[in-house]
UniProtKB/TrEMBL annotation, chain A:
One of its GO terms (cellular component) is microtubule organizing center. SUPFAM superfamilies: YVTN repeat-like/Quinoprotein amine dehydrogenase. This is WRP73 protein. InterPro entries: Centrosome-WD_assoc, Quino_amine_DH_bsu, WD40/YVTN_repeat-like_dom_sf, WD40_rpt.
TrEMBL record, chain B:
The gene is Ssx2ip. Residues 126-213, 255-282, 369-396 form a coiled coil. It is found in: Cell junction, Adherens junction; Cytoplasm, Cytoskeleton, Microtubule organizing center, Centrosome, Centriolar satellite. This is ADIP protein. InterPro entries: Adhesion_Centrosome_assoc, Afadin/alpha-actinin-bd. It comes from Campylorhamphus procurvoides.
Length: 444, 568
């Protein structure tokens, strides 16, 4: 594993291009595009204001930079650095912006979710989508980029509209039986749309592409409901993480629950491997000590190495009792991710924030528990292999694969507290983000 | 007066008798206080006189006799007087009476003994029963106390149970109440939310209107030049046709997804059906033959026909490969039946095993536990032996590998020496063989040379002989043509055959007539009548010898060449 040096970053905005060749990062109002393999700067673009959001187009030719405060979106071209495009929403304001799957339209959500404007880079046409819903995930595209589902709310009722992305024609418009639609997500095969209610009610609805209700699932009535939802890459399973610290898996044939995964604070099954991160004190050669101590020495003294050890089952994990009277409590399964080969599911229970649970989907059993020293900040599966990378806010990146796991210290001086990471689409490298810097990690 | 005295005497004497009896009683049986049995032991000889003299003295003989007579008559004995009036005693009757009295006495004694025995027995039984009674009373007391205790506990538990039920009911009621509260609050919140949302929507509408009305010039897109579409096509107008096309596309996508899923399901189904059929076959094979289970037959009417039916079904299924309801149900039902039968069979076997070895059962079906244990012991022993062998081999191997250098070198040297010795041996052998071969080859060549010479000589001889024959033939032809021509033919035939066949009489003649000069190496030598057959044998021998000396590879050559030349 190789690590690059640390580069400046602001706003956790560093994105790999979809083809995996370039990395775009923001420093205040500058957009820096680097080559991934050599980290040489290919282009620097200067925007009008501090960038809040960047996104690559699907063909890796354009990058949009959104500046919400000014209500401006600027689009840059990689092929033609002189090409520029600026979309000004003016008084309408801007809260969100994204590309369409064909890479030639930009969807801007205006303030207060008044409307979604579809700006075209090819033609002079502009489309409007009225009454979009202000929810967690209101606009979703199918994986093949053909259809777009938009959550809408009119007259205190939730609706879903399905548009054809090629000409933005409305295909279907139907109402949903939700109280307060919270999120929608397409299945990877593009034929089923999952829509779920807010956490006040546990309700998940499954709609077919043509708007028919296929099934509705409700696990229980009163306690807080769904927290996170994830489709498996083959569209066979739908994992629902809820506030009762359980993950329920539905199957695509009957849309009924096939199993429940629990996240107890004590693990007693003998077949589960529990990896515990332990700190090992650094070995210092006394001859090397010098006064005044050099920077490297100081950092090496204070940065503790850590490694994984296998704990003997039964293991009791660090459990945090949630505060009872706050909204959106830190309880329940808040992060869910399937591996790319459909064999593993990684979950995080927010009550037990230092632990990642990895489930074997083929056997529907808990396979591995990774217990870290600090709270898990982010984890992501390698897009090619069953390999999970996670970070916990310190300067180490942790990798797990079915053959084992390791903790790697990012070399470098100073603080580098990794709060987020993102894999390259080729699976060879990943970018580690902290508040001020980012670092590229090459794995092969 | 004397009479009166005597009358009172028996009373007193009876008293004294009693007292004596009592004393004797006390001496004999102090325990039987309640017994009223009078014991009449024979008094000791000392007391006898006094005893007997106490009743009858010389003064009151008459009275005592009459008294005794009176007593006897009252007891039913005949009188002891000879006659009713007279004072003469009937001795015979006295003796009879005495005898009677004695026997009575014996009987009474025996009866008394029996009664006493019974009395003792009853006494001990009574004691025993009293003990039992006492113990049972104690036990009864204990049990009563226990019962009381248990009843108390039971009462406590029941009250606890009632309390818990009550608590549970209370909790349930509370839960229900809370749920009702929650639902009512939820509806209230929803209502409020809806109201607020409506207000909010109104604001949004107003805002939207303002924004649209303002016609902000700023809301615009500045772009240097328009970019071509990603797929290179030009944008199309939105028309009804495009709408229809979109619908079509969507349905196509859905259909293809469904078809794919259906294909997957079909494949899965086929695999599962295969597995089921395999399972069925295996279950059928596992089950014991039907004749041992007459019971099963009565339960399941179709048992006998089932396997055949199933096989028929199998064939049917293979042919059709349909998954219609009835066929599927039949398959699953038949598997269920078979599985149940198998389960019953296994349960029976389990029962048999648990019942033990003592019962006689069908030995071929079940291996008795002892045999099984013996087998396992044997196997364990074998395993142990094998392990030991492996260990020793490992040790040897270790030794080989981990010897120190000197020993390894020595060992290597040893091996090398061994090898060298062997090689030398082999070399020696090889050289010997080579010598032998050389010798043989030389002898062969010599033999070949000899043979060549012999052959040459033979050829010359033959030529000479033929010449002679020819000359003689022409000379004899005048004598008898019959003889010569056939004989010529005969001769030629014999010429051909003579090497291989034993000579005949005709040959003899010819041989005799033939040259007497040749004795060795000519085919038809006939030196003398004595040795006609010997020569061909000799020749044959020679040829055989030559064959031998020439080596085994050469015999055919000689013979064949001779034959060829002869035929020519």
């Amino acid at each position: 594993m190789n690590f690059s040096e640390l580069f400046k970053l602001s706003g956790l905005l560093a994105r790999f291009s979809p083809d995996g060749k370039c990395l775009a990062s923001c420093v205040q109002h500058r957009l820096v595009v680097r080559d991934v393999s050599s980290l040489q700067i290919r282009q620097i673009y200067v925007c009008l204001d501090q960038i809040q959001y960047i996104e690559w187009s699907s063909d890796s030719l354009f990058i949009l930079c959104a500046m919400y405060k000014r209500g401006i979106v600027q689009v840059w071209s990689l092929e033609q650095p002189d090409w520029h495009c600026k979309i000004d929403e003016g008084s309408a304001g801007l809260v969100a912006s994204c590309w369409s799957p064909d890479g030639r339209h930009i969807l801007n959500t205006t303030e207060f979710h008044l409307r979604i404007t579809v700006w075209s880079l090819c033609t002079k046409s502009v489309s409007y989508i009225k009454y979009p819903k202000a929810c967690h995930q209101g606009v979703v595209f199918t994986k093949d980029g053909r259809y777009m589902a938009v959550a809408e709310r009119r007259d205190c009722k939730d609706f879903i509209s399905i548009f054809v992305c090629s000409n933005w024609q409305l295909l279907r418009h139907f109402d949903t039986e939700t109280q307060d639609l919270f999120g929608i997500e397409w299945a990877p095969n593009g034929c089923v749309l999952a829509a779920w209610d807010s956490c006040l009610e546990y309700k998940l609805l499954l709609y077919s592409l043509d708007g028919r209700l296929l099934s509705s699932y409700r696990a229980y009535e009163w306690p807080l409901g769904i927290k996170s939802v994830a489709w498996s890459p083959s569209s066979q399973f739908l994992a629902i993480g809820s506030f009762d610290e359980k993950v329920r898996i539905l199957n695509h044939v009957t849309w009924k629950k096939i199993t429940e995964f629990e996240h107890p604070a004590t693990i007693s099954s003998k077949k589960t491997i529990v990896y515990k991160e332990v700190e090992k004190s650094p070995s210092i050669e006394t001859e090397r000590l010098s006064f005044p101590p050099t920077r490297e020495l100081a950092s090496s003294l204070f940065s503790t190495q850590s490694k994984y050890e296998i704990s003997q089952v039964p293991v009791s994990l660090q459990y945090i009792k949630p505060v009872a009277d706050r909204a959106n409590p830190k309880v329940g399964v808040g992060m869910l991710a399937f591996s790319a080969d459909n064999c593993f599911l990684a979950t995080k229970n927010d009550n037990i924030p230092n632990t990642v649970w990895i489930w074997d989907i083929r056997k529907l059993k808990l396979l591995v528990v990774l217990e870290q020293l600090c709270t898990i900040q982010c984890f992501q599966w390698d897009p090619r292999q069953p390999r999970l990378a996670l970070c916990t806010g310190n300067s180490r990146v942790y990798l797990w694969s079915p053959t084992g796991c390791m903790a790697v210290q990012v070399p470098g001086e100073g603080d580098f507290q990794i709060v987020s990471l993102s894999w390259n689409s080729s699976g060879d490298s990943m970018v580690l983000l902290s508040k001020e810097n980012f670092c590229l990690c090459y794995l092969e | 007066m004397g009479d009166w005295k005597t009358i009172t005497v028996p009373v007193m004497s009876s008293d004294s008798k009693n007292t004596i009896q009592y004393t004797s009683e006390r001496r004999r049986s102090p325990t039987s206080m309640n017994s009223q049995v009078l014991r009449l032991p024979l008094p000791s000889s000392k007391n006898m006189h006094s005893f007997f003299s106490a009743f009858c003295t010389e003064e009151n003989i008459e009275q005592s006799i009459s008294y005794i007579d009176r007593e006897l008559t009252t007891l039913g004995f005949p009188s002891i007087y000879a006659e009713s009036k007279g004072k003469e005693l009937n001795l015979i009757s006295i003796i009879n009476c005495m005898n009677e009295l004695l026997t009575l006495q014996h009987k009474n004694l025996r009866a008394q003994e029996e009664v006493e025995m019974q009395h003792l027995k009853l006494g001990s039984d009574m004691d025993h029963l009293q003990n039992c009674y006492a113990k049972l009373k104690e036990q009864l007391e204990l049990s009563k106390r226990e019962i009381v205790g248990l009843q108390e506990r039971d009462r406590q538990l029941q009250s606890k149970n009632r309390n818990l039920h009550q608590l549970l009911k209370n909790e349930k009621d509370e839960v229900q109440k809370l749920q009702n509260i929650i639902s009512s609050r939820a509806t209230q919140y929803n209502h409020d939310m809806k109201r607020k949302e409506r207000d909010y929507n109104k604001l949004k509408e107003r805002l939207r209107q303002l924004v649209m009305d303002k016609k902000d010039k700023k809301i615009a897109m500045e772009v240097l030049n328009y970019v071509g579409r990603a797929d290179g096509k030009r944008g199309a107008w939105r028309t009804d046709k495009t709408e229809a096309r979109n619908e079509e596309e969507m349905y196509k996508v859905l259909l293809s997804d469904y078809e794919q899923r259906q294909k997957q399901l079909l494949v899965e189904n086929a695999e599962l059906k295969k597995v089921l059929q395999q399972m069925k076959k295996e279950i059928i094979s596992l089950l014991p033959p039907q004749k041992q289970k007459p019971k099963e037959r009565s339960e399941d009417g179709l048992v006998l026909s089932d396997p055949e039916e199933d096989i028929g079904e199998l064939n049917k299924e293979n042919m059709w490969e349909l998954s219609c309801e009835t066929v599927r149900e039949q398959l699953t039902n038949s598997i269920r039946k078979q599985w149940r039968m198998l389960k019953n069979h296994v349960e029976k076997l389990d029962n048999q095993v648990s019942r033990g070895h003592s019962e006689a059962w069908n030995e071929k079906d079940v291996i008795s536990r002892e045999d099984h244990e013996l087998e396992t012991e044997k196997l364990e022993l074998e395993i142990q032996q094998c392990k030991e062998m492996i260990k020793t081999q490992q040790q040897l191997l270790q030794q080989q590998l981990t010897c120190d250098d000197d020993t390894t070198l020595l060992l290597q040297d040893c091996y090398l020496l061994e090898e060298r010795e062997r090689l030398q041996e082999e070399w020696r052998l090889f050289r010997e063989q080579k010598k032998n071969f050389e010798k043989e080859r030389r002898s062969f060549t010599e033999a070949a040379i000899r043979l060549g010479l012999e052959r040459k000589a033979f050829e010359e001889d033959r030529g000479a002989w033929l010449k002679q024959q020819f000359l003689s033939m022409t000379a004899d032809c005048k004598h008898s043509e019959n003889v010569t021509t056939p004989s010529a033919f005969l001769r030629s035939k014999y010429l051909v055959r003579i090497i291989l066949l034993p000579c005949s009489d005709q040959d003899n003649r010819l041989v005799k007539s033939a040259s007497q000069q040749r004795k060795a190496s000519s085919v038809l030598n006939g030196p003398g009548p004595a040795e006609p057959c010997e020569t061909p044998q000799y020749i044959a021998h020679n040829s055989v010898e030559s064959k031998k000396t020439a080596g085994d590879s050469m015999p055919n050559l000689w013979v064949e060449s001779d034959d060829k030349e002869e035929i020519e």
